[in-house]
Amino acid sequence: MSTLEIKNLHVSIEDKEILKGVNLVINTGEIHAVMGPNGTGKSTLSAAIMGHPSYTVTEGEILLDGENVLEMEVDERARAGLFLAMQYPSEITGVTNAEFLRSAINARRDEDDKISVREFIKKLDEKMTLLDMPEAMAERYLNEGFSGGEKKRNEILQLMMIEPTFAILDEIDSGLDIDALKVVSRGVNAMRGEGFGSLIITHYQRLLNYITPDVVHVMMEGRIVMTGDAELAKRLEAEGYKGISEELGIELELND
Ligand SMILES: Nc1ncnc2c1ncn2[C@@H]1O[C@H](COP(=O)(O)OP(=O)(O)O)[C@@H](O)[C@H]1O
Ligand SMILES: [Mg+2]
């Protein structure tokens, strides 16, 4: 079993404190959801875990099986087993999807253990079929001209090909129609298992109808203010974030 542990994490962007002491422990075999209103620091949390240079960790720790993640370079974090599906995936001209995936897989493997072309194609075929992706998408430039839904599907393809230990999925449901939502959920559910843990960040409860989380955290104003099981997400759907913020006496800055 692997564990990703976030302890008292404080993160600033340009001297403004966004995360104000986040605590979170995720084990492989578990899917956690982080829900919260816009502007509350959800993407900041994912960026800090992955080591985005604009986000400064001012206090606290991130440990992967006890190893200090904050001391690792971005690529080391990926090799250590962390993966981020971004809220806004970037487009890369000149690199095809297939080339990108193959180098991403190989970058995480030892020199004498690179994936063979045959094995790669077989795996790619299998995952693209599961995600209802047309074959031609493998040869298109990474995310270039992809629709919002195609980009999200492509993030899940990366997840399934790379098979990280821990995946942070930031708003993978945003902009998806119901069919695409089902496909994306099918991909994440196929990853479920003893060797995989995930942190699903979402604004809406809708995605959690398809991917049932083991643990649900509510984030407000840079902190996790409530933790529960899948029922908590349903309560949020019924009451909105207002119900919980009033109960806890938290004044929400309205960013929506
Ligand atoms: N690059 C940035 N520069 C300045 N402020 C930022 C930047 N990115 C995010 N913020 C601010 O940090 C806060 C948290 O943003 P974010 O983590 O994206 O929230 P969420 O993902 O929960 O919607 C917001 O107030 C946002 O305006
Ligand atoms: Mg966000």
Q: What do you see in this structure?
A:
Belongs to the ABC transporter superfamily. Ycf16 family. One of its GO terms (molecular function) is ATP binding. The protein is an alpha/beta fold and 256 residues long. The chain has a domain at 3-88 and 164-248: Rossmann fold. It has helices at residues 42-50, 74-79, 97-107, 117-130, 148-162, 178-191, 230-248, and strands at 3-13, 16-27, 31-35, 56-64, 67-68, 82-85, 166-170, 197-202, 215-220, 223-228. The strands form 2 sheets. The protein has a 6-stranded mixed sheet, sandwiched between helices. Adenosine-5'-diphosphate binds at residues 13-14, 18, 36, 38-44, 54. Magnesium ion binds next to helix 1.
Q: Ends: how far apart?
A: 38 Å
- The global form is globular
> How much is the average pLDDT?
94
**Count of helices?**
7
Helical content (DSSP H or I, runs of 4+)? 25-40%
Which properties best describe this structure?
four-stranded antiparallel β-sheet, alpha/beta, 256 residues, binds magnesium ion, 7 helices, binds adenosine-5'-diphosphate, Rossmann fold
Question: Could you outline the blueprint of secondary structure elements for this entry?
Answer:
Elements: E1 3-13, E2 16-27, E3 31-35, H1 42-50, E4 56-64, E5 67-68, H2 74-79, E6 82-85, H3 97-107, H4 117-130, H5 148-162, E7 166-170, H6 178-191, E8 197-202, E9 215-220, E10 223-228, H7 230-248
Parallel strand pairs: 3-8, 3-9, 6-7, 7-8
Antiparallel strand pairs: 1-2, 1-4, 4-5, 9-10
Residues 42-43, 87, 170-171 line the site of magnesium ion.
Family: Belongs to the ABC transporter superfamily. Ycf16 family.
Protein name: Fe-S cluster assembly ATP-binding protein
Keywords: ATP-binding, Nucleotide-binding
